[in-house]
Amino acid sequence: MNEAIERVGYIGIGNIGEPIAANVLAAGFDLMVFDLQPEPLARMRSRGAKVAASARELGAHAQLLEVSIAGDGAIEAALLGPNGVLAGMAPDSVIALHSTMGPPAVRRIAAAAARANVHVVDAQVSGGKSGAQAHQLCYMIGGDAAVIERCRPVFATSGSNLFHMGPLGSGASTKLSQQMMTCMHIVAVAEGARIATAAGVDVEQFFALLRVSTGQSYIADRWLDHFRHTGRDLAEGFYLGLQPALEMAHDLNVTAPGTALAQQFIRAALGHGDV
Predict the structure, then answer these.
(1) Which of 142, 255, 259, 272 could form a disulfide bond with 267, CB atoms 3.0-4.6 angstroms apart?
(2) 7-167 architecture in CATH?
């Protein structure tokens, strides 16, 4: 298991998957990519990446297979289906799960992979598209230390901070816990800004103040710039992680009333229903 990783596969060339894959390619790894959408594949091909005709072909190429697909069901189908990635992977290769997902799904994938002598690490990421582009993602990784060390040079192409959080599932648990906190910060910033604006406070001055006061947070620092570029608040990028986070809390018999309220408020703000 000491073989250095040279061939990397990437499935899910989306908002964050594309810049991560581009960084892997730029670092000199032999990269093959796969996605159901042709446009990102065309862009990656133009950069010099190989493009797989199927998930199974991608698996056959990869010593390390990186995954950025949304939704546990879609991830399991792409990896574990009869023509999925795992069907093509060689023994001693590695699957790295970057998608936000719950620990139970991580363990199901790892159990299926173990039957094929394939390793799994849950290498969740934080920092979004801009963090990937700046090579400043934070990786929260669960799994065997020796397997993680094999992957480290690949992860370091996009990550400035790589944390081994513990055994398999620890990366997912950490990401969901962090997601809970982030969403509560979103609710706090949104409500504070709404009230200040209604009271006649200049919104630019309000956010300038937050940067140097006790109201400062990552969310507050980026709120206005994100809104200017996208026309949306930051909630959309985090909302999907709240349900698996609440399920994890339930499984651990830990109450999370703040997260439950944040889910309701953000759901209403995104137009998915009333509070």
Answers:
(1) 272
(2) 3-Layer(aba) Sandwich (3.40)
Query: Which residues does residue 95 pair with via DSSP β-bridges, in sequence order?
Result: 65, 120
CB 126 within 8 A of CB 179: no
Between CA 206 and CA 210 the distance in angstroms is 6
Question: pTM, whole model, 2 decimals?
Answer: 0.84
Interhelix angle 203-210/218-230, nearest 10 degrees? 150
1-to-5, 86, 141, 144 alpha-carbon distances in Å? 10, 18, 19, 12
CA-wise closest residue to 112 among 68, 190, 59, 184: 59
Domains 7-167 and 173-269 equal at CATH topology level: no
Question: 119 phi and psi, to 5 degrees?
Answer: -90, 155
The CATH number of 173-269, from 1.10.10.10, 3.90.550.10, 1.10.760.10, 1.10.1040.10, is 1.10.1040.10
Signed CA dihedral, 115, 62, 137, 257: sign only: negative
Instruction: List per-residue pLDDT tens for the chain, 275 residues long.
Output: 567 899 999 999 998 999 999 999 999 999 999 999 999 999 999 999 999 999 999 999 999 999 999 888 889 999 998 889 999 999 999 999 999 888 999 999 999 999 999 999 999 998 888 899 999 999 999 999 999 999 999 999 999 999 999 999 999 999 988 888 888 888 888 888 888 989 999 989 999 999 999 989 888 887 777 665 554 555 555 666 677 778 888 888 888 888 887 777 777 665 555 44
Domain ranges of the chain: 7-167, 173-269
Residue partners of 58: CB distance under 8 A and separation at least 6 = 9, 11, 32, 33, 34, 52, 65, 85, 88
